[in-house]
Protein 1
Amino acid sequence: MRYLGVAFILVVLSSCKPEPMEKADFLILNAKIWSDGMTDPYDAVAIKEDTILAVGFSDDLKARISPETRLIDAGGAFLCPGFIDSHVHFLQGGANLNSVQLRDADSPEEFIRRIADFAKKAPAGSWITGGDWNHESWGGELPDRNWIDSVTAGHPVFINRLDGHMALANTKAMELAGIKANAADVPGGAIVRDASGRITGIFKDNAMDVFYSAIPAPGPDQEDRDLQAAMAYVASHGVTSVHHMGTFADLAVFERNRKNGRLITRIYAATPLGQWEELVKKTEADGKGDDWLHWGALKGFVDGSLGSHTAAFFEPFTDSPADTGLYVNTPENLRSWIMGADKSGLHVVVHAIGDRANNLILNIYEETEKADGPRDRRFRVEHAQHLKPADIPRFARLGVIPSMQPYHAIDDGCWAEKVIGPERCKTTYAFRSLLDSGATPAFGSDWFVAPPIPLEGIYAAVSRRTLDGKNPDGWVPEQKITAEEALKAYTSGAAYSAFEDGKKGRIEKGKLADLVLLDTDLIHADPEAIRSAKVLWTMVGGKLVFEK
């Protein structure tokens, strides 16, 4: 019996032995770690393949070192989850990197000179697109095709304002698109004419569509180059995931590059809301993708933009008393598409800029929930730019995510008051009010419209100092938020807005190893130091995709 007892004890003791500690492929030591929900001052992260294996203290995690483990001593640098840009036009952004650069053209003369210089180097007869001009940079006068016709001979030109809701076409482009002198406006769009009735070359919102049919589609090689340029650019700014707002054709580009193993940025691809039935068929046939590329979101539009005077407001524009903006899609179509998509279990995200547009989409979301019953929908309003005060608490109450772009606040803030007046500006990009009401914002850039640089976005949300330098204490300063709140919106909030909070957005065991190392402690830095901070490296899935 004594022998049996000893044997039993030995069996019990051997069964209590700890499992051998799993070794890390990658071990980051001596970092200053920030993550939403982290309360301990951890300074080390162990990574196995594409996943975080453990988070803890450097002395403890050194036990996970093997001869094959790659070590990184962060030297006290700031480590946080990889930034998630929750609103980009990714392929267009990549294409625009190689196009004429007009964003900072500050006079008509500079605007014309840059187009002329670009046209001289462009292949004969090729379309000149992109541009991202802003007429507010030279006082608000809209450009005219007469400005550029003489310097773009042989080149059709269709260059967009930086918000993407208005573009300038030269005469050659209008000819190729079949635009006649008596062309009529289209619903949800406008063709601008001068005092004599001549078409100036400015086309707004739905009136732009005819040009998209005329511009030759890029071939697969060009699409892939645009995508690679976009991914490399955002990686250099710490972005590890993007939410792309585009077309079914874009989805095919991403799928091709996923199949070839060429993605270094994780992509959540949204397709057009009006084509929701096609996305139903796609998900039934192919599922919704994987950790690198997934779909299931539908992007719709209520209205246009503030800068193009196509945002839908209850009251007229201050500088255009007869104009309250427009709906790009009818309320009836929006309601039908959203309810159909929702019944099919798809994710609805809708662009709304003006207060009337935001009110409408919140009403439709509320109607949809009442019709279909409660569930975890995570409806999103893209931009949520100008809100009636009474609509602000509705986001939290309805569980609607305000998907916002902080950089727009310091850009539009240079001129918004002359367009809508100071009273409506009080709830423009209302970050503080939305957070205080219990909403969960997701932050992004709207690239190509604004730079896909989260550090610029965090700076904008924290300081609200406009780009013209005229608001050193912040434009509508009561809407400032803290750096930590902005970081959450770029990480855990953005992950939540794509149903990905179970796998990304925080530094914790089991999450994907998507990380960014910065030379500045964003939590304790002043706004200017945040803006000038540098990305030291960016990691996606346990692999470094950018190193400074």
Protein 2
Amino acid sequence: MSIWYLFFSLPNKLFDTPTSTVLFDANQQLIAAKLANDEQWRFSNTDSIPYKFEQCLLQFEDAYFYYHPGFNPISITKALISNLKNKKVVRGGSTITMQTIRLSRNKKSRTVYQKLIELILATRLELSYSKKNILKTYISHTPYGGNIVGLNAAAWRYYNRSPHQLSWAESATLAVLPNAPSLIYPGKNHDKLKQKRNRLLDKLLAKKIIDSTSCFLAKQEPIPERPKPLPQIAQHLLDRTLKKPSLKGKQISTTLKLSTQSKVLKIVNQHRKKLKSNHIYNSACLVLEINTGKVLAYVGNTPKQNENHGQNVDIITSARSTGSILKPFLYASSLQDGLILPNTLLPDIPTQIAGYTPKNYNKTHDGAVPAKQALARSLNIPAVRLLRDYKYQRFHNQLQKLGLTSLTTDPNRYGLSLILGGAEATLWELSGIYASLAKVLKTSNEQLTGKMQMPYYTSIASPQKRYDSPLNPASIWLMLNAMKEVGRPLQEMGWQYFNTAQNIAWKTGTSFGNRDAWSIGISSKHVVGVWVGNADGEGRAELTGINSAAPIMFDVFNQFNTSQWFTPPYYDLYEVNTCRQSGFKAGIHCKDTELSLCSKKGTQSTSCPYHKLVHLSKDKNYQVNSSCASTTEMTHESWFVLPPIMEWYYKKKHSNYKALPKFKAECTLLSEQAMEIIYPKQLSKLFIPKELNGKLGKIIFKIAHRNPNTTLFWHIDNEYIGQTINFHELAVQPKKGKHQLILVDTEGKRIEKWFEIIE
């Protein structure tokens, strides 16, 4: 090998070794790290050299580093004389530049020939690199014992802090350690390591780099016992970054806050024991800052303990059934389009639409309920009926505009179940949408159309796409105010009476079969999203949003200071005169009215359909018409009248509801009985037979109705069990004992029978 070949043989990339992927929080505190592909803790090249460590290193290894051309003739001569005298290698004459070359060549044998090669390549390196870059390269690839390579990795493994935070004693320890890492490995030879460190501290004192007090105090500091485990409190975010080639092997500054991440992780762990007792093993929590979109905490799953229940799965990015968590978006969209106003009464009655029969969670019906109350109580039937009016195809498109990327199939596949968990979404996108919508409220008067974007956790990642919000500020503000009325868990009851309590708009969701429990909350500063369930999809009866996810969410919110609620976007809100009873825009017969805030299109919404002018006898006890009373004998009055089936359920829960008086007998012909129960007869005692397989069968109840096109709503003991059209037969399996069969038709006519099931 010729000298000329060696002179030009310096590779373009001096080191081609894999590096660890390391996550830091916003304040450069390490929160997670992954071994390099060669199983070494080797961080990517350091950006700057800590002053204390630089002084220690130079005084120990190469005091004339900034003055020599890559080799030090005096040091080499002294080493040669000393080694010849002792007939063995007792002293080295390598400079930091030469050691850098030696490390890059995988520590070839220490012969005179190899030393000559290192010397030549060192001069070549000095021509290509600045002194600072050579020093950075050296300290990034120096071995520190075991599988620890480089100053950054060593500082975190031995002292659990960054190199810039090291003391003089710690810097001196790490400066001498690479000299013989196998001999004085911390935890084995404390005395030798301490002596070596103290000699270096004495040299720093002699050179007046430190004073006598600093030297004395530094010598009192202990030697590290053994390498410390690196923090791993954002494991799932680390796994997420590893899937991006541009981030793998890098030191990544994230937007997370160590204190917030630690608190959220602790809260998830605290709830783990209770959830585990119900065989619920997985939880995830995401905390976002509304003003910036930054992720402050990212707990992708419950930390793994001894058992494995899918804790490696990052739930934050996993698509799960949405349950009721999308209802606020339908509410806001309907407000924006003027389809409803905040207090518009929505039907809450037994419903069957094209074979689809939604049911409320509590299996009851209110008859009619204000829209914002239906949202706050998460009633399913009003939501489905509202979606039917809004059109599920249109809502599907609206969700895509909001930022849900999981809705990839035709909207007809979801149908009306879209609003009750028929679709899937991720905690990442749902939390991000709520955070973006909240940020829209903070836009100025001149910028009525706010911009939305998904949250971000690192500035290294590609810029997030910004897109126009499909919801205006008025509808968003009305939506959040309705969500603020959602009833909180038992441990949060009476929150409004405490000055320290936060205003939080929130919504839960529970998927079909109790497989997914959601809770997402919005304050004026933060969004907290929580998912609880089993990663394998196993459902549990106890798994609900209110009982499983909400307690975690509120515990997280309690870690933040209280904040003012959103300022109403008056520039986008309009006043409309509404009927106090129906919530619709006041019609000509509405006497009790109030001003309500709405979106622009809300001012053009439908007028109240439930108030009408009725004609009464002078004593107001009967309805009359021209066939039985003259106009002078009539009293005309505005009356709140719900459709019969809505009325039948509504008046059960509203004692102040006044049904219309009956017509005077002479005004109308007596109506014949509209329906009759064919089977069972009154007070029948019925026996349910067994099928061939030994299981109990069902009995068929039959009803006759004069109107062949009517719909009958069936109830047993006031519990809705189904409905029939045209052919009124229903198979039932009541439990043993006495029961009441109740039937109501669409006109509100009712019939009932008592029967008893015997063994």
Protein 3
Amino acid sequence: MSDPSSILSVIDRHLDSERFRQQHWEGTFFDYVKLVAADPRLARNAFQRVYDMILHFGTSKYSYLKQEYVHYKFFDDPLDKGADAVYGLDASLMRLVETFKSAAQGYGTDRRILLLHGPVGSSKSTIVRLLKKGLEYYSLMDEGALYTFSWKLPNEQGQIELHPCPMNEEPLKLIPRVPRREILAQLNAELAENRQIRVEGELDPFCRRTFEDLLVKYEGDWRKVLEHVVVRRLVLSEKDRLGIGTFQPKDEKNQDSTELTGDINYRKIALYGSDSDPRAFNFDGELNISNRGLCEFIEVLKLDVAFLYDLLGASQEHTIKPKKFAQTDIDEVIIGHTNEPEYKKLQSNELMEAFRDRTIKIDIPYNIRLSDEIKIYDKDFGKERVRGIHIAPHTIEVAAMWAVLTRLEEPKKAGLTLLQKLKLYDGKSIPGFTEDSVKELREEARREGMVGISPRYIQDKISNTLVSEQAQADRCINPFMVMNELESGLSHHSLITDEEQKKRYKELLSIVREEYEDILKAEVQRAISADEDAIQRLCTNYIENVRAYTQHEKVRNKYTGRDESPDERLMRSIEEKIDIPDSRKDDFRQEIMNYIGALALDGKKFEYNTNARLYKALELKLFEDSRDTIKLKNVVSGVVDDETQAKIDVVKQRLIKFFGYNETSATDVLNYVASIFARGDTKRED
């Protein structure tokens, strides 16, 4: 059993009492003014804080299809080791961050509702969850510190009680508007234009009433009023409903706008004598408690129209209208997300024109790059998450490949298949296509990624495969098992009711199966031809013959000692493997010699794997030569002699060592590829 003292020491190590004191700092209003004078960032508004929070985690730049992209590392979810990481959406995230930047500088986008729009499962809610989580973390740091205040007021017994500001207002709002402008001008004098501090609006009704009562009591002495103010550090927390709110639509009968803007506290009406006294009101609606931070609206377009009207003022005027009170200023980011059907309804509803006009729509599509889609499933089904069951190579890849294919539009260019289009998007090279032509493909299909299979469906089917009886028995899953699960699931997919669409998706699975077969054949070929000594000998032999051929010389036969003509049959048997026609053989051979010469000038040595095309040709040639000695087709029949079995075991170990298979999956692959070649041999015999 663990030692209790060691457990306690772990807790002590993670609890920093000095840090705790900093995060619970309290002081006077004048102490706070000194802090702001030293660091004006403390008085940032909500949009400025969100933007700075994203930049805090750093950026990197890269180019794709001759266009520059910025990758914001915040969306890799460094806070939770990538648990909520977003992949492949840099273009959309750039637009989102640019909107935050514009809003932070007060260019008008701060008066809009941000609407993340896309198909189900495209990471819309994940992005908002990241923003909320990031704000919580950032408010704990010195760089993201923000402050609010409480009132020190005597109760009926004369004892001093603290009354927190119900909407966690910025303390500088305690300064009347006219002198506030002058103070802000001083603070902003040395700040860059894009970092200017803006403190706008009036205090909430409770603080406004308290301020005015005290001002009357002290006959207008503002400094004495501020002696009742205790400024304190504010740490944002969704669970504690401090600066971060979430609103989710409910049944229309149960929806009430007071959930957004607060409601009367009927128990306190008797105490204060009026339902319009702010002390008898709970400023605890989602828009109230989200002040200074962010409010998320889940499926925002499913809200009742009355709620959407509340959002119009909240976004455009930065005000809300609590029951029985005047317009109340707010400072918060309002962000919602919605799916395609709801957005189409919004577009067709003329009565919602005002809402559309106050909305910035940011499309969040599915991934259409295979490598990015693979990252999603690697995160969920990596070795750290799935233990005890081996996931054969390419299992995740083929599922991701099918998902991406369902999201792509058929290419309009003649001779280009959908699978080739997928490969081009993923950065693979295909003869006849340049970056410009791939860019054209992207531009002519602007809605790619807005339809297709959701990552959730893929995740569900991989999960089903992992817990299947076969997986539990073999402790292994492979691509065929997952593809079968993907196909069978289509018959009862809740979102796919069109039979033609189901048919198309099944056809795409057939394409993926064919591609996977090609991958398997290539891997078995490489495993069979992975004898480095043999491939080195073959390469040396080929290069000697090519050198002699290009220089019109003879080749010394090491067995007979006689000079002979270059072995044309050997050279062509290798060159034909990479489709070098007879008419181009001279050019190719000269290219190889020029390449070797260029390496020598740079002081580099030519190896068999230095030139990718030649290496591929050598592998294929060696495979062809070795295939008959291994007698792959006999593997299917099970009639294998000891010598052949030894060779097969060597190939199997290479599959395990070089490609990541285990004993079971390597055996399955070898048997499957053997059956393919056996079918091919049968066809040739016929």
